[in-house]
Each structure stands twice: as structure tokens, then as C-alpha cells.
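S.,

As promised, the 5-O-phosphono-beta-D-ribofuranose run. Input:
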Amino acid sequence: ISFEGAHFRRDIGAKALKHLKPPKVGLLVGSPSDLSQVEAAERVFQEFGVPYEVVVASAHRTPEKVRRYAEEAEARGTKVLIAGAGLSAHLPGVVAAHTTLPVIGVPVAAGPLKGVDALLSIVQMPRGVPVATVGIGNFANAALLAVEILALSEERLRRKLQNYRKNLSSG
Ligand code: RP5
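Predicted complex:
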């Protein structure tokens, strides 16, 4: 999809990554079963005209793909990473271990504990390797937080955020 000159895409595969225009935000999820929840974030990025990509990569099932993606993200021009996973959700922490880009973690409500397990896994990072954790399933807030980080150096986004907040208070 193309929107205001931005590029949006979903996975991808490691080879394809090299040939595509770099996304400002890289959004990873641990499983294809998480993908339906990501749409809330995609709507935010499309509204704000932020180039992003969605990648399925698992800290446990495809650890090498996660490591490579996180290590290469900054050099590709990505500014913020979002990682969402359920159950024993190590994905955001592992991503953060391989980059100094800001990482936002989203606990996904999967399994019998309905995301509380993922929330506790993601939020309790050891000192030195932070993950900014949002509420269970709140991909929209993760995306808005990413936009706020980008807006620190993009006046266009700062103005759009101000309008967005105004609309919240008038709605
Ligand atoms: C996590 O386990 C994923 O992020 C997902 O939320 C959960 C279940 O994954 P599947 O077994 O459906 O692939 O790793």
C-alpha cells in the first residue's frame, strides 16, 4: 500500500528486506497468530503517514531471524521497533538486547493466562536493557508512542499528534 509517499508492507523474508525502502518503524510479532491484532497499529501508521513494516519472527522458534533483524534495523534507517508476543514473551527483550533503538513491547493475550504472563515477561527487564511496555493487546498505543518518538525530530508528525489529541478531547 502507498500512502502520502510512505510504504507499508507485511513480511517479507530476510532476502527481500535488503531491497525495500527502509521503514521508520519495524513491528515484529512472534507468530502469524498475532497478526490480526497488529492492524490497530497499522491504522495509526497509515493515518500518520509513517512507513512501517510488519515481520513475523520468534525469539524461540526463529531466534537467528530476530537477532539479524534487530542488529540490522538501525543501519536500514529504522528509528523505533515494536515487538509483540504472547505466552513467555521474550521477543521484545531479545530485540532490545541486539539494538540501542527504542523498543516498545506489546503483551499479546494468548493462552490460559490471557496475556498476564506476557505482560510480566515483557515489563520486568533487567537494568540497562529497557523495553517500553504498553498494555495487553494495545498495539494502537504502541504505534502512537512510536509516532511520538519520531515526532521529536519530525515537525510534520508533531503537528499531526497535536491535532489527534485535539480530536480526542472534542470527541
Ligand atoms: C507466542 O506464542 C506468539 O507471540 C503467540 O502470541 C503465542 C502463540 O503462538 P502460536 O502457537 O499460535 O504460533 O510466541
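The beta strands are 2-3, 6-10, 25-29, 52-56, 80-86, 103-108, 132-133. The mean pLDDT is 90.

- D.
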